[in-house]
Amino acid sequence: MQDKKYNVLVLCTGNSARSILGEVLFNSLGKGRFKAYSAGSKPAGRVNPGALEWLKEQGHSTEGLRSKSWDEFAAPGAPQFDFIFTVCDNAAGEACPLWLGHPATAHWGIPDPAHVDGDEARRAAFKKAAEQLARRIQLFLSLPIEKLDKLTLKEKLAEIGRIQD
Fold first, then answer.
1. Closest-CA residue to 122 (of 42, 65, 53, 59)
2. CATH topology for the 6-156 domain
3. pLDDT: is 89 or 160 the higher one?
4. What is the 3-state secondary structure (H, E, C) of 29-65?
5. Model-level pTM?
6. Which of 77, 72, 88 is nearest to 37 (CA)?
7. Is residue 102 pLDDT above 90, yes or no?
8. CA torsion angle 8 9 15 21 (round to 10)
9. Where in the chain are the domains?
């Protein structure tokens, strides 16, 4: 029996930094078991250069990455999501589109590295944000998703979001 492939959407307001990192890290760490996408409520229209720099330094492909609206994923023909994670506090408080299939949702707030001043400080902030996301994603990937009821899964996702690195 083949394992189910889960669709994940990582949301942030601008979809230029944290959610982009989350998309790439989910796709990389999920090793084919997860297909991740990212979007924003008010997309910046470009991927933050700091996110692209960190991803390239770590050997991740940045091909095809773009800042996009969450409306794209609420339209007919869009993937149906199993999990949706918000990674910024603003997006967590916004009224989201109605998602088909009633995906499990959680808020995994990560400080925004894009608003850090100074090149070295900004690079360090991107590294920290990516490490926090990677740690949470790894914890999520270790869950026995198929064996958890919806309430327990929601509680576990919320616990992961509260982890401070």
1. 53
2. Rossmann fold (3.40.50)
3. 160
4. HCCCCEEEEEEECCCCCCCCHHHHHHHHHCCCCCCCC
5. 0.91
6. 72
7. no
8. -20
9. 6-156
Give the C-alpha separation, 14 to 75, whole Å. 19
pLDDT, tens digit, for every residue of 21-44? 999 999 999 999 999 999 999 999
The pLDDT-based confidence of 61 (bands split at 50, 70, 90) is: very high
SS3 11: strand
Residue 158, both tokens: 């919320």
DSSP state of 145: G
The pair of three-digit structure tokens given for residue 151, joined into one six-digit string: 């309430």
Across the beta sheet with 83-86, the strand order is 34-40, 6-12, 83-86, 104-107
Q: How do strand 104-107 and strand 83-86 relate by DSSP bridges?
A: parallel
User: Which pair of tokens denotes residue 80?
Assistant: 């149906």
Q: List residues bridging with 34 in a β-sheet.
A: 6
Q: What is the pLDDT of residues 112-136, one digit of tens each?
A: 998 899 999 999 999 999 999 999 9
